[in-house]
Amino acid sequence: MNVFEFRNLLASEDRKEKRKSLQRSLIKSVETGANGTQNYVVKKGPGKNKIATTRQ
Fold this sequence. Notes:
Structural class: mainly alpha
Radius of gyration: 25 Å
Mean pLDDT: 81
Number of strands: 0
Largest sheet: none
Order of helices and strands: H
């Protein structure tokens, strides 16, 4: 491997690391249960006004 190839290899690794860190910084955390995604209350039927679980 000559010097030119070695420098290109290092530069490509740097670009990969920058891309990975950018992707990680763009990911936003979400709140569990935001916008009514958890503890849904049944509105009709025999289980009215009860909180729905995953075991339905």
